Amino acid sequence: MLPFPVLAPALPEIILVVGALCLVLLGAIQGDGARRAIQTLSVGLLIVVLGLVHLSGGKQGVGFEGAFIADGFAQLMKVFTLIASIATLLMSFQWLERERVERYEYSLLVLLATLGMMMMISANDLIALYIGLELQSLALYVVAAIHRDNSKATEAGLKYFVLGALSSGMLLYGASLIYGFAGTTSFSGIAAVVKGGAPLGVVIGLVFLLAGMAFKISAVPFHMWTPDVYEGAPTPVAAFFSAGPKMAAMAMFVRVVITAFPAIAPQWQQIVIFISIASMALGAFAAIGQTNIKRLLAYSSIANMGYALVGLAAGTPEGVQGVITYMAIYLVTTLGSFGCVLLMRRDGQAVETIGDLAGLSRTRPWLAFSLAAMMFSLAGIPPLAGFWAKFYVFGAAINAKLFALAIIGVVTSVVGAYYYLRIVKLMYFDEPKPAFDRGDASVNGVVIVCTIFVALLSIAPAALFNAAAAAARSLF
Amino acid sequence: MAALFFYLFSAVLIASAFMVVASRNPVHSVLYLILAFVNAAGLFVLLGAEFLAMILVVVYVGAVAVLFLFVTMMLDVDFAELRQGFQQYLPFGALIALVFAAELIVVVGAWAIDPSVLKVVQGGSTAIPSDVSNTQAIGRLLYTKYIYFFQAAGLVLLVAMIGAIVLTLRERSGVKRQNVAQQVARTKATAMEVKKAPFRAGV
Fold it and tell me: Which of A386, A420, A390 is nearest to A405 (CA)?
């Protein structure tokens, strides 16, 4: 008889599964009448899981015959992902109710997607990686199309589904090649095989694997879905897409290349450098012509993934620390930006064009201040949080002697600053449009917290950097 | 005895496979397909792979073939029209089949197994135990070593199910539904109305 599986490292996930299944049952029995209760309980469940993950203290542990790993890196990334899920859930409820797409399944799908993200972060095996990714993606495809009577939302859902299935196929093909040539699916086993010179099949498999993962973080040349999906999906859903799943996919990306393929770093570094440069450049130039703020934020997220990959291209603990710091700060900034977009409602209608922000400083000065802080932070202007994010990834690239990459990054961030600052100019110097409606308390709360974080990180940055450094060390 | 059953299953399998393509009625085609699957399952049993045989019956016959049957019966596809030009494309199809067959013969003819691989397969670390059937062996592995993947795959299917319901289930108004409780609760007083019809006057 085989021994009983080791469950302890996956305790938060198990509690999340059991809780989510109980809520599925509650929903199935009570129907839409239990929507409010399910919403509250989902947020409560995520907070409990967040507490458990935090209390685990990043203890190293491997469960389920090596398929699941809990370590400092997984703990920190899970904390960020859970915070993103909680914040987006809080921001969604009232917005979706106003748009008449209130359905109790929304919270359940977000819960299950969050579970998929946690499985991706903790995946220590190609099969675990793929199943976690599919769990997350399937839930996201449905959430994108949850506004099913809206043709744009269904188009977004369908587009995301078709392209996502294609990328899953590529990832699976790469994984099968790696398994075929390495003879194992576990990351440590692959690392052991690759150490003595990687067979060609493994390298080709790695390319496909990276292509599949680049799709999930929407890096160029696999970014095409992002603007359409962000524009078509309901705004809270777009906020969700831009935060948690990106975090989880980036964590998965880092773990795969660092723990499974450390011996062939030069091979994957070329690819990471290429997609990083392409993402930064496309994100910077393509966003200039956008008039829809959600599309603009989509291109901004493409560019931001490029910047985060700059740290990974270095392939050093310092670089991984840069990636973690960058993703944490990006997460807060994007949540804050989307929170501001959620507050753009005029006469009960959601408005989405950049022109609608004109003169916001005179009608809603604090909202304008928050959005300006987010935009300055995304542009990387000190003393806001975004400056530190860029500082660390470029620093890591320079220490790894990747000067060209760092220079291109700085140049594209100057180009990108143009469209971020154009929004600030619109808000502060143009003739005001009619004022927006009063916002929901929960969205206001999230925006305030994000603004405080972005504005005041420079006072005590050490906590975040030290946590990121400790997490990065646990990978090497 | 085994040889007899092998020839029986094989003959029926090939014949029914041919009938899938050849029968004019698409519903007959699907029924022949089910027959082909069942006979293939019989061949698997002869090989000692009873688990695969059961999977074939449960998944292919139970789900896929019945789904096919639903589709062919529900959708109004004019199969006669689809078949038009079958004669016309026959030479071209035969040519492709010939090329494919030649390739297969070349590949299979030059087949050689790496002796090092053979050594691994034969002298592998895991000897095949004789006291467990393969269903049992798969079950033991699936519920212990691979329990994580098994359960997680179950969750993926749950999400797919929730998603399908979220995206397609609609509450329609103006549809007459059967309410069993209401029907049972009917009494003589509510269900019947006694009218007095006047004599010789009609209703």
Answer: A390
What does the pLDDT look like over B66-87, one tens digit per residue? 888 888 778 766 666 766 777 7
Is A59 within the bounds of a domain? no
- Asked if residue A56 belongs to a domain, the reply is no
Tell me which residue in A4, A131, A145 faces B156 most closely, judged by beta carbons: A131
B171: helix, coil or strand?
Answer: coil
Query: Within 10 Å of residue A94's Cβ, how many Cβ atoms?
Result: 17
- Between CA A357 and CA A293 the distance in angstroms is 10
d(CA B98, CA A468): 62
Q: Are A378 and A293 in contact (CB under 8 A)?
A: no
ipTM of the complex: 0.91
Residue A244 inside a domain? The answer is no
Residue A7: which pLDDT band, with cuts at 50, 70 and 90? confident
Q: A352 is in which domain, residue-wise?
A: 261-476
Query: Which two tokens mark A185?
Result: 């699916």
* Tally of domains in chain A: 1
Query: Residue A281 domain-assigned?
Result: yes
Which residues in A lie closer than 8 A to residue B140 (C-beta atoms)?
1-2
Largest CA distance in chain B: 104
Are the C-beta atoms of A203 and A267 separated by less than 8 Å?
yes
Q: Rounded distance, CA A211 to CA A220, Å? A: 10
The 10 Å Cβ neighbour count of residue A250 is: 26
Side-chain-side CA neighbours of B51 within 13 Å: the count stands at 8
The tokens of A344 are what? Answer: 């753009």
pTM for the full model?
Answer: 0.87
Q: Two tokens at A327?
A: 């993703």
Nearest to A248 by CA among A327, A177, A363, A154: A327
Which of A5, A17, A141 has the CB atom closest to B155's CB atom? Answer: A17
Q: With an 8 Å Cβ cutoff, are A65 and B158 in contact? A: no
